[in-house]
Fold this protein.
Amino acid sequence: MEMVKNAVNWIEIPVTDFARAKAFYSKIFDYEMPEWPMGPIRMGMFLSMQEPDCVGGAICQGPGYIPSQQGSTVYLNGGADLAVVLGRVEGAGGKVTTPKFLITPEIGYCAFFQDSEGNRVGLHSRG
């Protein structure tokens, strides 16, 4: 296999209550999440650069999307300092499960939260 720039090129976070999840992610990232229907799936898009080699993602409601604390872990970009986003989690209806901690000085920091739908989600930042 060839070496690729990003190990991930798209993420989808399952939700059961789309309006609640959209409000949660809009609040913690401080923007109005745009919606994009895709057949039977309702999607709320995370803000990301719309350029080649940029990674994006969405919250998704529809057949086959079941929130969980088990399974794959998605790490969302926490910006310059993930503490800003993490600080909004509980006020938006989520729960901080692991506070911000240093991985290594080269890699940066991460933290984990449970979103409004029950998913385990990570945050990563350099600061």
Q: What stands out?
A: Residues 18-29 form the longest helix (12 residues).
